[in-house]
Amino acid sequence: MKYRTLGKTGVKVSEIGLGTWQLGGSDWGDVSEKDALAILHRSVEMGINFIDTADVYGMGRSEKLIGKFLKETKETVYVATKLGRREWIENNGWPTKYTIEMVKRDIEDSLKNLGVDSLFLEQWHCIPTEMLKSGEAFELLENFKKKGLIQHWGCSIESIEEGLICMEHPGCETLQVIFNIFRQKVATDLLPIAKQKNVGILARVPLASGLLTGKFKKGHKFPEKDHRNYNADGTAFNVGETFAGVPFEKGVELAEKIKEILKPGDNISMAQLALRWILDHEEVSTVIPGATKIDQVTNNAYASSLMVLSQEVHQRLKELYKKEIEPFIRGKY
Ligand SMILES: NC(=O)c1ccc[n+]([C@@H]2O[C@H](COP(=O)([O-])OP(=O)(O)OC[C@H]3O[C@@H](n4cnc5c(N)ncnc54)[C@H](OP(=O)(O)O)[C@@H]3O)[C@@H](O)[C@H]2O)c1
Question: pLDDT digits over 91-100, tens only?
Answer without folding.
Answer: 999 999 999 9
